[in-house]
Amino acid sequence: MRGWAVAALDLVFPARCPVCAAALGAGRRDPLCGVCWDGVVRIAPPFCARCGLPFFTFADIEDRHGFPGPVCASGDLGGHVGAPQFCSPCAVAPPAFDWARAAGLYAGPLRDAVQRFKFGRRPALARPLAALVLEQCAAAVPARAVLVPIPLARERERERGFNQAALVAERVARGLGAPLRERWLARTRATAPQTELDAVERRANVRGAFVASTAAAGADVVLVDDVLTTGATAGECARALRAAGAASVGLLTVARVL
Q: Which end of the chain has fewer CB atoms surrounding its CB within 10 Å, N or C?
């Protein structure tokens, strides 16, 4: 019945993709159109066992948009067969979280979808973005994981109308059959937007900005956020959860900046 209702509404009021404004059609993942959904560059192995950074090689081929682009490397990356592979930054200075996985690259349709979601007040985009996380990252989540969205400052959440991380986390938790605990992590103070800051400034900006509940003691906590850039915010959240006694802290994000 729902399918018939959607089809009937589309005939009268054609639905438009919030990213490209095209009419939704075959392959749609409401409210994303099929072209934008298929245009997301998924992150697949091989990647860093700690932070999830994809290992790329540059091949002289054209991607689906007709431009030369990066392709995931395949085969042996060196070292012992079957041993975890780490990127150089993680080998030198591992992040505070135990592992991180992102569903796709913060580029093209996925970047546009995340920006419409956060800044264009399109909370319905949480549905396909959470579906993408489940599609690409579900296997990384521990069996007894507890999901915790990274909190926004109160002023920013009030201005935006929602916490994008919480909307995604709610749907991912439902898809995994995992508990969601929004109150296990809180901000102790507002911080400046991270967008215009470099890596060092980002770490200083969020230092001491989070506190975790002791209810997290002994739990395998999985943080959820929209985009992983330098990992400064997630790292500070992980430190707070570790201080509260969490057994492990992982990170799931919709997208990753390279």
A: N
